[in-house]
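Budget justification aside, the reviewers requested a transparent look at the raw inputs and outputs of the sequence design task funded under Objective 1. We therefore reproduce one unedited record. The lines immediately below are the structure tokens for a 156-residue chain.
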């Protein structure tokens, strides 16, 4: 058995807008996404989320709330991704471009789903209405979803 790879994803949400970043390199390059990355040894998942947010767009969230757990299987890869999704509505600092991400605010009614990971169109509506979710997506390559399981949950 191969352990899941632990990752974080942070979405800053303020009323009608969400802060997304354009991924300039690495996994998911060319797509808009929240901010996040790998959990390093010795840090909690929440610490990793805060660190990646700061590294990738220069802001510090005042408090991160975990709102989603997403598991991704890629056909042919025994290692699943386990992405812990967090949100925050207040932060310190000004969103700033980094080597990895170019931040931009999007109105919640014009989220660029066509230029995002294809799973996002399924779970974003749950996030945007303020609920929590748990899901599993089986991918073939990076564009094709073969299987989807998604539910709204009270608690993660
Ligand atoms: P680095 O490898 O750059 O972290 N991530 C995904 N996000 C969405 N919305 N959908 C997916 O579907 C994703 N797979 C990974 C987790 C990768 C970043 O990309 C997120 C991390 O924030 C497959 O360190």
């Amino acid at each position: 058995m191969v352990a899941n790879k632990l990752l974080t994803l942070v979405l800053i949400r303020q009323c009608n807008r969400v802060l997304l970043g354009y991924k300039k390199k690495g996994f998911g390059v060319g797509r808009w996404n929240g901010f996040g990355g790998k959990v390093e040894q010795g840090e909690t998942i929440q610490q990793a989320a805060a660190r990646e947010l700061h590294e990738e767009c220069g802001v510090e969230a005042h408090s991160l709330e975990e709102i989603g757990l997403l598991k991704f299987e890629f056909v042919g890869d025994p290692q699943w991704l386990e992405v812990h999704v967090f949100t925050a509505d207040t932060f310190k600092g000004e969103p700033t471009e980094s080597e990895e991400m170019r931040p931009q605010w999007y109105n919640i009614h014009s989220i660029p789903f066509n230029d995002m990971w294809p799973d996002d169109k399924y779970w974003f509506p749950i996030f945007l209405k303020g609920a929590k979710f748990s899901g599993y997506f089986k991918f073939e390559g990076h564009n094709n979803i073969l299987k989807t399981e998604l539910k709204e949950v009270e608690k993660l």
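The chain has a mean pLDDT of 97. The helical segments are 45-57, 120-128. Computational costs for records of this kind are itemized in the attached budget.
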